[in-house]
Design a protein that fits this description.
The complex is a heterodimer of chains A (about 110) and B (about 180). Chain A has about 110 residues and is mostly helical. Helices cover about 75% and strands about 0% of the residues of chain A. Chain A is rod-shaped and about 95 Å long. With about 180 residues, chain B is mainly α. The longest helix of chain B has 23 residues, at about 25-45. Chain B is globular, with a radius of gyration of 17 Å. The chains are: A mainly alpha (about 110), B mainly alpha (about 180). The interface of A and B includes residues 3 and 8 of A.
Chain lengths: ~110, ~180
């Protein structure tokens, strides 16, 4: 055995060597990535909710300032607008995936 | 690795798919390279648990930085480079790490065989090497990486890698009682 062979053998990890395939390790990383995705999604949704709240506040003030008595005339249309808006939002969302992400965010494995 | 793996796709193709949002593609990249990254970190950190934690952090960073991977780069080198930077950050934050590593080596159960004595001597000598030299030894001498690939991973000039490898080899052989 040459000196380099001996050195190579001494540098081996032996029992400490990681397995060639480790599904547990890969699963832990996948789990952490999903949690990070969930947090990023919540952050984006929170930002959009903030922007929407500011817009609604500005809109409400401008409508109030205009002095128009439109609230009574719009009242019958509100439920219809809410239903249409909700249906549009639901059609754009993968509910199953969203629920899985909520579960993983709240109760990580 | 630029050769196709089990699923027939190259590392770059998998990285591209992962960048587009494929969790399965990233999982395949983790499976392909986890042994190389963890093996490298176990040699430079000494503590296997700490090495695995750093490997997880490195893969998470890789996932969030997939956009920075150059199309001509080796994914394995890129991942080990990220892992090396994680290890450096972790070590620099702890002044007593070297002493702790040596203590950990001393507390390991020793099996009195020539091979185990060599292994312990090599690990102790490895722990005393400067950080860059230790990383080069871990990649080039222990894992058979080329000097060019190690230079790419560690962000060091090729000449520096070659001299680190030569000096590291000499010190380790000396620790084993061999003439360099």
């Amino acid at each position: 055995m040459t000196a380099d062979d001996r050195l190579k053998q001494a540098l081996g990890l032996g029992a400490d060597a990681p397995p060639t395939t480790d599904h547990g390790f890969a699963a832990r990383i996948a789990e952490r990535i999903e949690q990070r995705r969930f947090r990023e999604r919540i952050l984006v949704l929170g930002l959009w909710a903030g922007v929407a709240a500011v817009l609604a506040w500005v809109l409400a003030r401008s409508i109030a300032a205009s002095g128009l008595e439109i609230s009574t005339s719009l009242q019958p249309a509100i439920p219809v607008l809410v239903l249409v808006g909700s249906a549009w939002l639901l059609s754009r969302t993968n509910m199953e995936r969203l629920l899985v992400q909520v579960r993983r965010g709240l109760w990580p494995v | 690795m630029t050769q196709p793996g089990r699923d027939g796709r190259t590392d770059q193709a998998l990285a591209q798919a992962a960048r587009a949002g494929s969790s399965r593609a990233f999982d395949e990249l983790v499976q392909r390279h986890q042994a190389a990254v963890r093996g490298f970190l176990r040699r430079v950190c000494a503590d296997p648990a700490e090495a695995d934690d750093l490997a997880q952090e490195a893969f998470l960073t890789a996932w969030s930085k997939l956009g920075t991977l150059r199309p001509d780069a080796s994914v394995r080198s890129w991942l080990c480079g990220l892992a090396w930077r994680k290890a450096l950050t972790a070590r620099r934050g702890r002044a007593r790490s070297a002493a702790r590593d040596r203590q950990w080596l001393d507390t390991r159960p020793a099996f009195d065989t020539p091979a185990s004595r060599d292994q312990l001597a090599a690990r102790k000598a490895l722990a005393t090497l400067p950080e860059d030299q230790r990383a080069v030894v871990a990649l080039c001498l222990a894992a058979d990486w080329s000097h060019a690939e190690a230079a790419e991973a560690l962000g060091l000039p090729l000449g520096t890698v070659k001299s680190h490898a030569a000096r590291g080899r000499a010190k380790l052989l000396e620790a084993l009682g061999e003439t360099p």
